[in-house]
Amino acid sequence: MSAGTGIAAVDAIASRIVTLRGQRVILDTDLAALYGVETKRLNEQVKRNAQRFPADFMFRLSAEETTELNRSQFATGSQKHRDQRFPPFAFTEHGAIMAATVLNSTRAVEVSIFVVRAFVQLRELLASHRDLAQKLEELEQKAEALAMRHDDFARNTRMQLRQVFEVIQELMEPPESEQKRPIGFVIHEEKPG
Fold first, then answer.
1. 155 belongs to a structural domain
2. Which residues of 131-149 are buried (b: 16+ CB within 10 A; e: fewer)?
């Protein structure tokens, strides 16, 4: 299989992975299709090997989750025609690998590698989004701090300029206490006294 085909396969699998109960999972119908078996056969093998599928590997969807999933954009055609008495199983990354081992088919083993890569790709994508969100938060905090410092500086500058203008205006006004004296020689008359 070429690198381009492998990437396309990983992307196709990644598009089938959904988030339920805070975990990234792939539904039994999608996993069975990927592994080249009927959903019924996959579920039979899972039931026969129930001890290999603890709750963190696989869980059955509730009726509400099934209904919501059928309404969502992620619902597959095979989910819509499924018997409502048997809600689908959701397999985590580890559960999907374990399912490949209990099926014990060449195709399941080959495809399980792509399933793992798809889960890893989604995990890395999520991590990169978290890193980006954290960097944006830090940048926003720095910008806010810089704006606050700029506002303080601008406020201080305005106050200082106001003080300078006030002093200049005071210097431009003649003092009120000083009366104008006539120019030249002034004779003061003596008062009789």
1. no
2. eeeeeeeeeeeeeeeeeee
Q: The dihedral of CA 76, 77, 80, 82: what is its sign?
A: negative
The answer to the question of residue 175 being in a domain is no
- Looking at the domain assignment, is residue 136 inside a domain? no
Give the residue numbers spanning the domain of 76.
3-130
* Cβ proximity of 45 and 35 under 8 Å: no
- The residues pairing with 58 across neighbouring beta strands, listed in sequence order, are 91
Closest residue by Cα to residue 99 from 41, 158, 183: 41
The verdict on residue 153 lying in a domain is no
Q: What is the pTM of this model?
A: 0.56
Q: Tens digit of pLDDT for each residue in 99-127? A: 888 887 888 877 877 888 888 888 788 77
Query: How many domains, in total, are found in the chain?
Result: 1
